[in-house]
TrEMBL record:
Domain of life of the source: Bacteria
Name of this chain's protein: Por secretion system C-terminal sorting domain-containing protein
CDD domains assigned: Sialidase_non-viral
Keyword annotations of the record: Repeat, Signal
Pfam name, any one: Sortilin-Vps10
Domain Secretion system C-terminal sorting: 733-793
InterPro entries hit by this protein: Secre_tail, Sortilin_N, WD40/YVTN_repeat-like_dom_sf, Xyloglucanase_GH74
Species assigned in the record: Polaribacter pacificus
UniProt domain Sortilin N-terminal: residue ranges: 574-703
GO biological process: xyloglucan metabolic process
Length: 808
């Protein structure tokens, strides 16, 4: 007898921590009738809405069917627009599937409106509604080509127009660079479109700059008179003053050329016909610093003389219509850091939004950062609220001395939580001011000693202050961020538990987390080792691995012997060293997949588990001489035929409890050393798993995702995806029952047993402690109505067992 149902006990779900901050934030729009209502978009986690001025955020994606990402769970909303004529009407545009959605109830529900859209892979970057005419609107976007430029993909652009409230669309422009912001003049036949962005290249290489139409979009002409340098327009802002426009220009690929092409800020007073530069890359607004790429600009709606411009490094303000500017960034004059809240990398500002009555209240939505607010004119910033994270996590490193603390690192930088992820402290201080990150580790006996590594420049940093200050201890000399194919970092950082002075770092080429299925990559630098607590580093030997690509994607150290080290390579197998990395032996030849993404040691290091990229999990009990597959790579009832495993972890207090993370289908758990596995995804909105780690007491499991930050899971109870996976156990009888049941327990189990009874909807009905007599517990449930119930009780290993009971 079994029950086919997809419900689970509520207490047994993953919990979204809502952090750390990060993601691909794009738009931030404020309701024109109520400044407490704010909408934000994220290319990974969709639309979130706040009704309390940004203090808290709630996802609002009902009806948006667009999905993307490694697990098809990401909600790729790039742009949101509020109809100023009717603020309960909201528009949204999605990424890579040409999706346009309309809501008529302030974002509660959405309906797709893309009739007439020709291309199938458009990334919509802006939707604009004509003031005074809700039926006329424009949608601007990019059309990917799949062709790589010097740094980024080369793309084309399109603009669509609707004259019937979005029911039908027609294409009115296409060109060689993506279409971004659209400014609509007082007469809606006058249109000014900006093209380009900092992280895309144009199919014509040089970009197109400003496109202008004077006939409602029927014809277009370039309008770049006065624009010098880059023709990639990061930001554009119009105003209530007729003809007044500002643009911010620059592209990261252009500034890395042998002859850099730099950006600036430009102003037009005649609707974009001509332009005057008001900030140049050579202007020294901040001491010792010049700007190359400007990403956003905005005119204050209450005072058109006040203008803000921003880059990834600084925020600028003018109070005299662009004649002079004041710059703001973090840190001190001797040790400057980018703008943003203390300890946090703000990322790249994509949109600036200014309060309609107070020009000192400024909001910024950012790539790779978060949503921030300033109340003093961009001098200082605060993180805007909780409950929203689009962060991609690369590594979670628990604190062995604090069961509630962990260090995490990803695209938005290093963060530390000391309360199981309820709050996060940013650790982006001093020398930790880099753009992309790989690894993290916490000292086994000193919580203040932390290590992190970047992804591009081969850096290893150390902190002895809990992350409030950092010192660079190693810089791989052949890794450099400025050359695309020379970006490498220490993906793995492991501190020996038996001798914390010994630390191993495994180097790999960039993009492991963004493209884990890639099979074409340059050779990296193998293993580096420190024997003085990270102060100095030397390259380990390559004897036995000299013929490999030296891309280390997994690393484990014997907990009782710092010289016993295991490494997994990208495409080249699993190796073991017994002499601290001087020599290596291939022990993974018995596995069909030679790309190893995770290694875990159990039972006093006598058992090795290897998570392969595409062939599941293998187990060896004889140090790699023989391997047995314990978790198949095959997926069923899914869009992904095979798993792509990213991480593996062993519970430190129960070595038979092992978890693996698949970037396609979530988390798998075994409590019997691999004999049986259960997919535990309840509550996990994003199954794109990048990292797994247990707390030091084994009671909490943390997972990092690609686009939803960190989730936590209470391992003292086990969840399953559906109750059909639960058999009717023989130790609970009679079943069906008239109400009196007996639990037949293992000998010498407990003197008393706490039993919980749940309804099939997950509501707890009973929690009571029963005496155990002769290894049995008698339970009287005659007071319950007829139906199916769940009986849950603890096992010796601290986990819980749940079984079905039918009361007739």
């Amino acid at each position: 007898m079994s029950l086919l149902c997809t419900l689970t006990i509520y207490a047994q779900q993953w919990q979204r921590t809502g952090g750390p901050i990060g993601g691909l934030g794009y738009n931030l729009k404020i309701d024109p009738t109520n400044n407490q209502i704010i909408y934000i978009t994220d290319a990974l986690s969709g639309i979130h809405k706040s009704t309390d001025g940004g203090a808290t955020w709630i996802p609002k994606n009902n009806g948006i069917t667009s999905r993307s990402g490694d697990s098809n769970d990401a909600i790729p909303v790039f742009t949101v627009a509020i109809d100023q004529n009717n603020p309960t009407t909201i528009w949204a545009g999605t990424e890579y599937d040409s999706g346009i959605y309309k809501s008529t109830d302030s974002g509660e529900n959405w309906t797709k409106k893309n009739n007439g859209i020709i291309e199938t892979n458009i990334v919509f970057r802006e939707i604009s509604v004509v003031n005074g005419d809700s039926n006329t609107l424009f949608a601007s976007g990019e059309v990917p080509t799949g062709n790589q430029g010097n740094e980024f993909e080369k793309v084309n652009g399109v603009i669509y127009k609707s004259t019937d409230g979005g029911e039908n669309w027609s294409r009115i422009w296409s060109g060689n660079s993506l279409a971004r912001w659209l400014c609509i003049g007082g007469n809606p036949i006058n249109l000014v479109s900006s093209t380009g962005i900092f992280d895309r290249e144009a199919t014509n290489t040089v970009g197109m700059g400003i496109m202008k139409s004077t006939d409602g979009g029927a014809t277009w002409n370039q309008s770049n008179n006065g624009i010098t340098g880059s023709l990639f327009i990061g930001g554009m802002s119009d105003s209530s003053t007729p003809g007044l426009l500002y643009i911010a220009t620059g592209n990261n690929a252009e500034v890395n050329l042998d002859t850099p092409i730099k950006g600036g800020v430009f102003k037009s007073t005649n609707g974009g016909t001509t332009w005057t530069q008001v900030i140049s890359s050579s202007d020294v607004i901040l001491p010792g610093y010049t700007e190359d790429v400007f990403n956003a600009v905005k005119i204050a709606p209450s005072n058109n003389n006040i203008v803000y411009a921003a880059s990834a490094y600084a925020f600028y303000r003018s109070d005299d219509a662009g004649a002079t500017w004041t710059g703001h960034r973090g840190g001190s004059l001797s040790s400057p850091s980018p703008w943003g809240p203390s300890g946090i990398r703000a990322g790249v500002p994509i949109e600036i939004t200014i309060d309609k009555t107070n020009p000192d209240i400024v909001y910024a939505a950012n790539y790779g950062g978060g949503i921030f607010k300033s109340t003093d004119g961009a001098k200082t910033w605060q993180v805007l609220g909780t409950g929203y994270s689009g962060a991609t996590i690369h590594k979670i490193a628990p604190d062995p001395q604090n069961t509630s603390a962990f260090l995490t690192i990803g695209r938005s930088g290093p963060f530390k939580s000391t309360n199981n992820g309820t709050t996060y402290d940013g650790l982006y201080y001093e020398e930790a001011g880099h753009a992309e990150w790989y690894g993290a580790a916490v000292h086994p006996t000193n919580s203040n000693t932390l290590f992190i590594s970047d992804e591009h420049e081969g850096l290893i940093l150390k902190s002895t202050t809990g992350g409030t200050s950092w010192t660079t201890k190693f810089n791989q000399p052949n890794a450099t961020a400025s050359v695309f194919n020379q970006r490498h970092g220490a993906k793995e950082l492991i501190i020996s538990k038996s001798n914390p002075n010994v630390i191993y770092a495994g180097f790999a080429y960039q993009f492991f987390y963004s493209d884990p299925d890639n099979t074409t990559f340059p050779n990296s630098f193998g293993v580096y080792k420190s024997t003085d607590a990270g102060e100095t580093w030397t390259q380990s030997g390559t004897t036995g691995i000299s013929a490999t690509n030296l891309n280390i994607t997994a690393l484990a150290v014997n907990t009782t012997d710092e010289n016993s080290v295991y490494i997994g390579l990208r495409g080249d197998g699993l190796f073991h060293s017994t002499d601290g990395g001087a020599n290596w032996t291939n022990i993974g030849q018995g596995m069909p997949d030679q790309t190893i993404h995770g290694i875990a040691l159990a039972d006093n290091n006598s058992i090795i588990y290897a998570a392969t990229k595409s062939k599941g999990v293998y187990k060896s009990t004889d140090n790699g001489n023989n391997w047995t597959q314990v978790l198949s790579e095959v997926n069923t009832s899914t869009d992904f035929p095979t798993k792509l495993l990213m991480s593996i972890a062993v519970n430190p207090t129960n070595k038979k409890n092992i978890v693996v993370g698949d970037i396609h289908t979530g988390v798998y758990m075994t409590t019997d050393a691999g004999a049986n596995w259960t997919n535990i995804n309840q509550g996990l909105a994003n199954r794109a798993i990048t990292s797994l780690a247990f707390s030091s007491d084994g009671k909490t499991l943390f997972t990092g995702t690609k686009g939803s930050g960190v989730y936590s899971y209470n391992t003292t109870t086990l969840a399953v995806d559906n109750y059909s996976n639960l058999s009717i156990l023989k130790n609970a009888y009679p079943n069906p029952s008239s109400g009196k049941i007996t639990l037949d327990l293992q000998p010498n189990t407990f003197q008393s047993l706490e039993v919980e009874i749940f309804s099939i909807t997950g509501k707890r009905i009973l929690k009571k402690s029963y005496k155990v007599k002769n290894n049995k517990v008698e339970i009287n449930l005659q007071h319950l109505s007829k139906g199916m119930y769940i009986v849950s009780y603890p096992l010796l290993n601290g986990l819980k067992k749940s079984s079905q009971i039918l009361i007739e």
